[in-house]
Amino acid sequence: MVKARVGSGYFVNTSIMESPLIYNSITENKFDEISYKKLKLSKRLPTAHEMEIFSIGENDYLWSIKRLRLVQNKITQLEQARLPVKLFPKITDSNVENSLQKYALSLGLEIDSYLTTYQAVSLASEDAQFLECKRSAPAMSITNRGFLKSGEVFVVSEILDINYQCTYHTKFNNESLQHRDQDDR
Questions:
Q1: pLDDT surpassing 70 at residue 49
Q2: Less packed terminus of the chain by CB within 10 Å, N or C?
Q3: Cα–Cα distance, 36 to 116 (Å, whole number)
Q4: What is the 3-state secondary structure (H, E, C) of the chain?
Q5: How many beta carbons lie within 10 A of that of residue 79, not counting itself?
Q6: Residue 13 confidence (pLDDT)
Q7: CA 148, CA 82: separation in Å to the nearest integer?
């Protein structure tokens, strides 16, 4: 993100300005350094909330996946994901133990974007057991909704990460500063 020029100082690397995400501790690793361990794979009917998210009916099934993500053979994440069966007619253990993004692309789906929310949490006992750490240990809860170019949601996942770091580069937002500085009288 920052370039050093001998005798001149430090400067922002403008070649990265197009993408706000500069660093993500998971994506710095190559796929051969990341592995997955399936904990659960099942097909079930959606809740009312899931029917809204995926724009599906009450009789349209979802895949429900629970898996561990290991980075360099160390457990770092617990993921629970849901995918609509209408987009993924068949999911095998092998698909669950590999990249779901790569599987979606292999089916000809065109991924457009993700809506991601981060929140610091304390681990519940069951999650801590899966992640092999102490109950109430700090973790990052990362919720993702993946969108196709058609606008459809193709995946919703909730990830608990016990060793997460990310860095963003964002433009200064003067309007936001002014809005927050306004007196509400």
A1: yes
A2: C
A3: 21
A4: CEEEECCCEEEECHHHCCCCEEEECCCCCCHHHEEEEEEEEEEECCCHHHHHHHCCCCCCCEEEEEEEEEECCEEEEEEEEEEECCCCCCCCHHHHCCCHHHHHHHCCCCEEEEEEEEEEEECCHHHHHHHCCCCCCEEEEEEEEEEECCCCEEEEEEEEECCCCEEECCCCCHHHHHHHHCCCC
A5: 20
A6: 58
A7: 15
Q: Percent of the chain having pLDDT more than 90?
A: 68
Q: Cα(74)–Cα(54) distance, rounded to whole angstroms?
A: 33
Please name which of 137, 23, 26 lies closest in space to residue 77, comparing C-alpha atoms: 26
Q: What is the number of alpha carbons within 13 Å of residue 137 lying toward its C-beta?
A: 17
Q: With CA atoms as reference, report the closest residue to 56 among 46, 44, 41.
A: 46
The pTM assigned to this predicted structure is 0.79
